[in-house]
Each structure stands twice: as C-alpha cells, then as structure tokens.
Write a structure and sequence with these properties.
- The chain is of the alpha+beta class and 741 residues long.
- Among the domains are: 102 residues, no CATH class; 65 residues; 102 residues, no CATH class.
- It has 28 helices and ten strands.
- The strands form four sheets. Strands 4-3-2-5 form a four-stranded antiparallel sheet, with no helix packed on it. Strands 1-8 form a two-stranded antiparallel sheet. The protein has a two-stranded antiparallel sheet with strand order 6-7.
- Keywords: Coiled coil.
C-alpha cells in the first residue's frame, strides 16, 4: 500500500480548520490476486500485452527458478528483517506543517528548561503541575523571542488551550507515552487560572456567514476598486475565481489554492429538460486536510446559469477566461470563446468533453505574480499562499465597509449552514462535502452562533421575517462605505509623538550610521511604528460604529443630515481595461440565448484582455483642489493629455546623440510605457525624471539588472531591438541611451 503523502498547510493562523475531524477508518484495497476471472476480457496469453522473444522467455524462467518465484533471493529478506529500523515507525505520523509547530513548541520548552536549570528530555518524564503551570506562565510573559524580535503575544484563551494540546503531542513524541490523565485534568484548571491572570479573552472568532449578496458586493469591489492593486490583472481575476470556487464547494481554502488544471474538467452537456446546451465545470479537490490520512478526493459539478442579472457571480466566465488566456484547451481550433457557440453534441450522446492539454495537468491554477525585467508576469510554479489570499480578502472587506474581518472561512461557514438548511442535501452529503466524519464538528464550529431564525415569530405562530433575520446575522449586516479603511495624515502624525517612538528615535540618533546597531535600531523603530499604526487603525474601526451612529442621530434630530453624502477616498481612477472589464460583467442580458452567448463571450474576452494588465503597486492620490482636479484628464476622448506629453518628452530625452549625454530617464521604463493605454496611470511613474543621472543608474541596477535571469527575454522597445545577455543590455544602455551602469 502506498504511503500517505502529506502536504504542509500554510503557516497563517487562519488556515487551521476550526474542527478537528478524522475519518473512522480508511478503505484498504486488496493486494491479493482474484481467482475469479470468469467473464473477464483479460486473457492469459502473453501476446495480449506484447510479444516477447524466446531469449527473454528463457531469461525470465531462469530468474523465477533461481529465486523461487520471487524477484529477490531469500537472503535479501533475511537481512532485511535483521536490519529493519523499527524506530522510524514509532509515534504518530504528522504532516510537515504539524512537525514545524511541534518543533517550535519543543524549542520553547528547551528555553524554559534552560531558565530553570533542568534537562529538557528528563523533564518530560517527570512532569508535575508546578512545572507545567510555570512553563505556560513563563510563555505568556515572554515579550521577545530568542532572536530578539517582539512577539505578538497570546490574546485568546483558546490559543492557550491549543498550545497545551500541542505540548502534549510533544511529550508523546519524545517519550512514546501520553500524559497522565490526572495531570491532564489538573492542567485544565491551571489553564483557566492562567487565562484569568493574563486577561485572555474567552471570545471566539466570529463565524457569521457571508450571504450571496455579501459575496456579490465583495466580488464587485475586488474587480472595481483601485484602493487595492494586485501587480498583475490575472491575480485580481484569480482572487475572484477563488471565491466563486470556494463558495459552492464549502471546501477548505487551501484545497482550492492547490487546484491544478488537471483537476478541472469542462464539458458541453445536453439539457435533459430540452434547454440550450450547458457548459458544466467539474473540479476535483484532491488536496485537503490530511489529519490521520489522506481523504478521498471529491468532485463538484457547477452548471452554467443562463440569464443572470449580471456575470459577477458566474465562475464559468472567470475560469474560461483563464483557460483561454493560457490556451489550455487541447483542440487546436478552440482558441476563443466565440468558438464555443459553434459546438454541438452528437446525436444520442449527452456530453461533449472540452479536454485540456496534458502538459498543464500538474500546473497550478492559482499562481502568484513575479517580477520580470520591465514589469510583472504570472509565475510558472510559485503558488499563491493562503496567507496572501487571506490578506487580499480582508483588505477588500475593509474597502467594502464590513465591520468584521472577512476571511475565506466565512464562505465555508455559509456553505455549511446552507447545506444544513437545504432539503436537497442530506446530513451525510453535507458531512462528505465538508470532510467531516460526523456532525459534531459542524455543530461545534460551523453552526452559526448568531441564531439565523425568527424565533419570536415562530413562537407566536406568525410568518417569520426570514430575509431580515438572514441579513442581520450575515457578515454584511453593518456594511458602510463611510467606515475608515486607512489612517488620516493627522492620525499617522500622532504616532510619531508616541513616547516609545520618541525614545527609540533618540536612541537611534546616538548610534553611528552604517553600523549593525544602527540597522537593528532602525528596524525596531519602523516595526514599532507599524505596530502602533495597526493598533490605532483597529481601535478607530472598533469604535466607529457606535460613535458614527451617535453623530448621525444628532444630525438627524438637528435637521442637518445628508443620507446621500459621498466619501471621496482619493484613489486613482480606473484604467480603460478595468472599466471595460466591469462593464462587460455588469452588462444586462437579452431574453434570447444568442444574447446571453454574446454577453458571456464579451465578458470572457474582457477577462482575457485584463489578465495581461500590469497594475503595479497601490497608489493613492493626494488631496487636490477642485481646479487641480479639473486639469487631470479622466476620459479617453482627449487627443493628448499630460501623460502622453510627458511620454514624448522622455522618448526624446533618452535618444542620445553624443557619448557625453546622460539622460535622467530609464529607457526600459519608458519602453514599457509605450505598451500601455494612453490613460494608464502607471505611465506617470514610468516616465518620471530622476534628480540626477546617478539616480537613474541606481534605479536601473536595482529594478532591472538585479532581477535579470538567464531565461528573461531582453528587448528594448524604444529601439525595437532584442539584446542577447546582461552585458549586451548594459552596453546598449550606454551607447544608445547614455545610461552608465
């Protein structure tokens, strides 16, 4: 039987599933031959598998006779029994991610034993309530780790309980025996006392569900906002596709992120009710939580939904956009979404498969963006981690105005509760979809603690106001665009006046620049500023709901309230490609199937086009006066705006005529600007003029030469010339563009 393959989960704390489930038993395939071959099409003739020469037959028979029918002689197994290492199979078989966690806690235990002058291994065998209490008390009092970096600290009682559970596994791994049950019971009381002593919170993570309305708003904001950029347009599309695959499956987020092209199957299916042919998307989640063994892969089938009010919630258009973008379809002529309209199903058959190329089978769907010589491109193998995706989703939730932090598990909670309330899904099917062995994990961790029912109306025999209750119990019940997402300039400045910051700045001034002590102190100062900013922002967001409500009440009672007030957050406008993308997905549909096909194809083409757009870093506009705002071009109707004028000036400057000219523009960045839309805001950054030619050379070395690899294609768009290698690039930059590097 093949060994279990365990894949490490992301180290992000939000990855861990709230429930600890395991299957009761695993199926064991028979490894013995079955003598019952009657009716079988398999013959015993060797020529069925392939012809062999007479010499091969003789060699094979000699080998069989030599080893008694086995491929190895008896001595091989005699020595194997003697030399077998049984210690390899002692203890529990943990995944690599769990081993990392166990090793970290074991290192902490060794540090504590050094403090109390005890041997770590011997202390495992002589544990007492006094040692354990003081170990966890010492751990909760730790402010910095062994490397001198500040610890975030333990805030929740549940975290302390988890720490104790992992420590028990460390003891079991080291000694081979479990902790004494009496000592375990005593520790439960000790943990309660420690939680009270250190002020740990009993509050659990909010498990509010993300309704389909909340999901729609999250996706709209992800696609339309410019407050958050994703470096490359394809990453923005993948962030939406992740949500739309996670929602119907209710799967663990990491299993979606590990999806490969080989796990996806698209077919054109005949409608049994006589409707138009439907594109079915089947995706198999082969990688999921591997506690106590690899779980069976599950396949989810999502049909295409015709005549939706918009295509924001259509996973098919995003997935098809990715497939067409990378030309994954095996049929050579299936290169654009328009070709899908021409396909039909053979008479008497129910499906027409749309096979994908085999070379893409092991390639991940969700891959991160990587830097290239002049911009960004999608990586071939570097995955998007759970931590990255969780941060993007949380940031979009802040921009949208959610009060609670949005996490991927919000969709898993929603799916679990939706499955539980549906008459079309049984309890067994719900547990299968969620990878639960029984209903206990669902009841303990997934069933919403916000009771999603109008209990008072039910008791009074009235019709429940279910829509209102569902909204009140969802993530978006208190959504507000006015909710602050970032600190103001005044709030940021207030951090610099904090006593700790002033103390650190004073210490920094006394140190010699360039020394190791100066670098460490500078890093400590920056980290402390970031920590204070995050803390201030969170406090402001926590207090905003009540304080803003009081302000709104007072204004309404004074007759000064304006319910339609628009908050301008000062973000850059959308580019033309982003506008086209949002418009294509929001387009209304005709009442005909042909009209739907046109809308779907337009949306897929918009997605394909946007995948190649380089968004760059997030940029925020400074507050400007109304007159300044009017001077900024925001439409495509203008023939030549300031961006194009600046590009012309830069182009003229980088074409040197003498060896002594040293322009203050980067010719690679200017060449990149030539490929962008005329109104793309990235042009402004690409054609900026540096203060000196030396600054231009520094930028060229840091931004371009430092990341140049052998497989990168070096191409100067200004001169329309392909360069062979790094030295050729430097030589070309000096001779043709006056850039000395």
């Amino acid at each position: 039987m093949a060994p279990n393959v365990r894949l490490p989960p992301d180290s992000d704390s939000e990855y861990s599933d709230p429930g600890l489930e395991c299957s009761d038993e695993s199926d064991v395939d028979s490894v013995f031959d079955n003598d019952d071959h009657e009716g079988s099409e398999c013959g015993s003739d060797a020529t069925v598998l392939g012809e062999s020469s007479d010499e091969d037959d003789v060699d094979f028979k000699d080998a069989v006779n030599l080893f008694g029918g086995n491929t190895h002689p008896p001595e091989y197994y005699q020595n194997a029994v003697k030399d077998f290492d049984e210690s390899h199979y002692d203890g529990q078989d943990y995944s690599p991610g769990s081993d990392i966690l166990l090793d970290a806690i074991e290192d902490t235990w060794k540090e504590f034993c050094k403090v109390v002058n005890r041997d770590p291994k011997e202390s495992y065998t002589s544990l007492s309530i006094g040692i354990l209490y003081n170990f966890f008390n010492w751990r909760l009092n730790q402010q910095v780790n062994k490397d001198g970096r500040k610890l975030c600290g333990t805030k929740k009682k549940s975290s302390l309980s988890t720490y104790w559970k992992v420590f028990r596994l460390c003891v079991e791994r080291a000694t081979g025996d479990k902790i004494d049950p009496k000592l375990n019971r005593k520790m439960h009381r000790a943990l309660r006392d420690l939680a009270k002593k250190h002020g740990l919170s009993d509050e659990k993570r909010v498990n509010r569900c993300m309704t389909i309305e909340d999901l729609s708003e999250q996706i709209r904001t992800t696609l339309s906002t410019t407050e958050k950029c994703f470096q490359l347009g394809e990453i923005r599309i993948l962030a939406v596709l992740f949500l739309l695959l996670l929602a119907p499956a209710g799967a663990r987020p990491a299993s979606i992120l590990r999806l490969r092209f080989g796990d996806i199957r698209a077919v054109l299916a005949r409608d049994p009710e006589g409707g138009a042919h439907n594109i079915l998307t089947r995706f198999t989640l082969a990688f999921t939580k591997t506690y106590l063994g690899v779980k069976d892969a599950k396949t989810f089938t999502v049909p295409e939904n015709f005549f939706d009010p918009s295509l924001f919630l259509s996973p098919h258009v995003y997935l098809m956009g990715i497939l067409f973008r990378h030309q994954v379809f095996k049929a050579p002529s299936l290169t654009s979404p328009d070709k899908l309209d021409m396909l039909d199903i053979h008479a008497g058959e129910k499906e027409l498969p749309l096979p994908l190329k085999r070379e893409f089978d092991d390639r991940l769907v969700f891959r991160r963006a990587v830097k290239t010589l002049t911009g960004y491109d999608i990586s071939m193998d570097a995955p998007i981690t759970y931590g990255m995706m969780a941060r993007w989703i949380r940031r979009i939730g802040e921009i949208l105005g959610f009060e609670y932090s949005t996490i991927p598990y919000s969709l898993r909670y929603a799916a679990a509760n939706g499955f539980d309330q549906s008459v079309d899904i049984s309890e067994a099917l719900r547990n299968l979809a969620l990878d639960h062995a029984n209903s206990v994990p669902f009841q303990r961790h997934y069933l919403g603690r916000e009771v999603n029912a109008d209990t008072w109306a039910i008791l009074r025999g009235q019709k429940p106001q279910q829509a209102l209750i569902k909204q009140a119990c969802s993530v978006g019940h208190s959504i507000s665009k006015r909710r602050p997402t970032d600190l103001t300039a005044e709030q940021v400045a207030s951090v610099n006046t904090h006593p700790l910051i002033r103390k650190l700045e004073l210490e920094l001034r006394r140190m010699k620049r360039g020394s190791n002590e100066h670098a460490k102190a500078l890093r400590k100062l920056r980290n402390e500023k970031l920590r204070l900013k995050r803390s201030l922002k969170q406090n402001i967001r926590n207090e905003w709901t009540d304080s803003q409500a009081v302000e709104d009440i007072e204004r309404q009672l004074r007759g000064e309230w304006n319910p339609n007030q628009v908050v301008d957050k000062g973000c850059r406008p959308q580019g033309s490609a982003q506008k086209y993308l949002v418009q294509a997905l929001a387009a209304k549909c005709d009442d005909t199937i042909e009209g739907y096909y046109r809308r779907r194809n337009d949306a897929i083409n918009a997605i394909i086009a946007y995948c190649t757009v380089e968004e760059g870093p997030t940029m925020r506009r400074k507050n400007t006066s109304p007159t300044e705002t009017q001077l900024t071009p925001t439409t495509d109707t203008q023939k030549e705006g300031p961006l194009q004028k600046a590009l012309k000036i830069a182009l003229k400057a980088i074409r040197v005529k003498t060896d002594k000219e040293r322009p203050r523009y980067c010719f690679l960045c200017v060449g990149k600007a030539l490929t962008l839309q005329p109104d793309d805001p990235l042009i402004k950054d690409l054609v900026r003029e540096f203060y000196t030619s030396g600054d231009t050379a520094k930028h060229f070395r840091r931004r371009h030469l430092s990341i140049l690899e052998d497989h990168h294609v070096i191409y100067c768009r200004v001169c329309d010339e392909t360069l062979e290698h790094k030295k050729h690039l430097q030589n070309h930059g000096l001779k043709c563009h006056g850039l000395k590097s």
